[in-house]
């Protein structure tokens, strides 16, 4: 009977120790999760004063996962796991996953290049291929964009590194280029003065840099010109919507013609084609001009 009681007490002690270990492990995980959130919030407040949004987000994530990993390791030690065995198994698993997911590894390395090079930041508007949108987040595997029609687009980091990328909001000012055609009979100096007057009257156009007037080429039906004005980045779209109607109205007031494509027909000998004006009385019953008789006699 005494041996049975000792065995029962031993089982009870072992059960109690196991329950306490699980409780301590749960406490470590809970406290670790709370500390990870607290540390990430503290880091984002501190880093936000000295770093941009992209770097602050990266620091916050590193701090969060670092504290969380320490909490998980402490919980596993309380449960009696041998960490050396776990590290060895994690190394083998990492190698296997690396061979199985080469695309993910390539995106991960590309993400590190993007973070180091910093061609854009969170909040910038970029264009990649045929996709244009605002950068929502820069992750280790991909970049999330929000298009202007409020769609979320995920672009892999590898695609960003390999393809041409345009940052539309990197610099504080942008240039609006307008391609304009005027008739051959128009005075170029008068056209230039009219365009400069439109730019001077538009409050969104910057005085420096000055507007730019360029003669491009002699086109098929018009003299091709380029008129470029500068605006602040946040006023670019509004200026684009205002400048084209303003130029059209100014040309109408000044009597400057914007021609449409025209063609001139002539014979090889240089003689013009004969043109006959047919009055209503000479036309047939169906409204068409009477055609000359045609000889259909077989030959």
UniProtKB/TrEMBL annotation:
The keyword Membrane is assigned to this record: yes
Primary localisation category: membrane
UniProt KW Membrane keyword: yes
Family: Belongs to the MscS (TC 1.A.23) family.
Protein name, entry field: Small-conductance mechanosensitive channel
SUPFAM superfamilies for the chain: Mechanosensitive channel protein MscS (YggB), C-terminal domain, Mechanosensitive channel protein MscS (YggB), transmembrane region, Sm-like ribonucleoproteins
Domain Mechanosensitive ion channel transmembrane helices 2/3 residue range list: 65-102
Record's bilayer topology term: Multi-pass membrane protein
Keywords of the record: Cell inner membrane, Cell membrane, Ion channel, Ion transport, Membrane, Transmembrane, Transmembrane helix, Transport
Region (Disordered) location: 279-299
Annotated compartments: Cell inner membrane; Cell membrane
Molecular function via GO: mechanosensitive monoatomic ion channel activity
Domain Mechanosensitive ion channel MscS C-terminal: 177-258
Record function comment: Mechanosensitive channel that participates in the regulation of osmotic pressure changes within the cell, opening in response to stretch forces in the membrane lipid bilayer, without the need for other proteins. Contributes to normal resistance to hypoosmotic shock. Forms an ion channel of 1.0 nanosiemens conductance with a slight preference for anions.
TM ranges: 20-38, 58-77, 83-100
Domain of life: Bacteria
Coiled coil: none
């Amino acid at each position: 009977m005494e041996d049975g009681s000792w065995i029962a007490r031993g089982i009870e002690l072992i059960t109690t120790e196991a329950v306490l270990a699980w409780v301590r492990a749960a406490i470590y995980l809970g406290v670790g999760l709370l500390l990870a959130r607290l540390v990430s919030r503290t880091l984002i407040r501190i880093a936000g004063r000295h770093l941009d949004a992209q770097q602050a987000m990266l620091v916050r994530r590193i701090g969060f996962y670092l504290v969380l990993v320490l909490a998980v390791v402490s919980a596993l030690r309380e449960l009696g796991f041998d960490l050396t065995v776990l590290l060895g198994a994690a190394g083998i698993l990492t190698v296997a996953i690396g061979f199985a997911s080469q695309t993910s590894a390539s995106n991960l390395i590309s993400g590190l290049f993007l973070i180091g090079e910093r061609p854009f930041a969170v909040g910038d508007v970029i264009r990649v291929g045929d996709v244009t949108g605002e950068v929502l987040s820069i992750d280790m595997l991909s970049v999330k964009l929000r298009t202007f029609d409020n769609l979320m687009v995920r672009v892999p980091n590898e695609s960003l590194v390999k393809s041409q990328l345009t940052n539309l909001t990197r610099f504080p000012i942008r240039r609006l280029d307008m391609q304009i055609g005027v008739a051959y009979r128009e005075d170029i100096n008068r056209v230039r003065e009219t365009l400069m007057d439109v730019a001077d009257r538009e409050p969104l156009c910057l005085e420096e840099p000055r507007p730019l007037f360029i003669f491009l080429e002699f086109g098929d039906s018009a003299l091709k010109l380029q008129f470029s004005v500068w605006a602040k980045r946040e006023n670019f779209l509004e200026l684009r919507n205002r400048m084209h109607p303003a130029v059209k109205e100014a040309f109408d007031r000044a009597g400057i013609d914007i021609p449409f494509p025209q063609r001139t027909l002539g014979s090889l000998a240089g003689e013009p084609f004969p043109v006959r004006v047919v009055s209503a009385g000479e036309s047939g019953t169906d409204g068409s001009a009477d055609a000359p008789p045609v000889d259909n006699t077989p030959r």
